[in-house]
Each structure stands twice: as C-alpha cells, then as structure tokens.
Amino acid sequence: MAAKLVFYQMLFLSVFLLPYSQSADPDPLQDPRPPSVNGFSCKPVSDDGLSKEGNTTNAFGVSVAQGNVFAFPGLNTLGISMNRVDFAPGVVVIEGKVLVGLVTTGNVFYSEVLDLRAGVSCL
C-alpha cells in the first residue's frame, strides 16, 4: 500500500511540476548564431572593417564604412548595425549645423541637429 502511495505521489509531482521545470525565456527568437536561417551564415565572428580608414577621394570628401549583417555576417540576428564616417582633411565642419542620428532596433529614429560654433567639438 505504501509503495502505491509513493508511486502516485511521484506521478503527481512529475506530471504537474515538470512543465514548470521545462520553461524557458522566450525573448531570443533565434539563436544568436544560427547556421543559415535567413540566408546569412554565422561566420566570420570578427571583422576589422570599421578600423580601416575609408577612401575620401571623392567629390564630397566623405567615406562611410558599414558594419551591418551584409558586411559582417557574424552580426546575424543580433539587431546591431554601426557605421564609421571618415572626413577628408579640410572637410571638417568648422561652424554650422550637422544632423546626426541613429535608428534603434525597434525602428525608431532619433536625431539631433548640432549647432557647431567655432571652438566646439563633439563625438
């Protein structure tokens, strides 16, 4: 009789408590480095594209290096993108206005117009 009681107690615990122990955090919709879910491989895992100077010998004297999933597939499914802007010598904004901004992963655009006076620097 005691063996049946223990058996039913263990059955009860395993049936009703097992789903709670199998719960997981649903936030990551994909593994940070899936093999090829959306056409991008997970390699390379390192990139030096943003550390190199850009070619600024164009009419505007500006070069933009992209650090997104197209240039660096290791960022696949992480929602990260960054750019590096290089100005040629003499193309620095001495005085005037510059529009700087960013787009979040939630597709929200934040921007600000910086009014640069002589002697003011910004990063």
Structural account:
The structure is a single chain. It is built from one helix and four strands. The radius of gyration is 27 Å and the shape is elongated. It folds into two domains: 30-90, no CATH class; 93-123, no CATH class. The strands form two sheets. Strands 1-2 form a two-stranded antiparallel ribbon. Strands 3-4 form a two-stranded antiparallel sheet. It is an alpha+beta fold and 123 residues long. The mean pLDDT is 70. 16% of the residues lie in helices and 23% in strands.
Compute the CA-based radius of gyration: 27 Å
Helix content: 10-25%
Number of domains: 2
Q: What ranges have pLDDT less than 50 throughout 5 or more consecutive residues?
A: none
Alpha plus pi helix count? 1
Based on Cα principal axes, name the global outline: elongated
How would you spell out the order of helices and strands? HEEEE
Beta-strand share of residues: 15-25%
Total strands: 4
Q: Structural class given helices, strands, pairing? A: alpha+beta
Taking the sheet with the most strands, its summary is: 2 strands, antiparallel
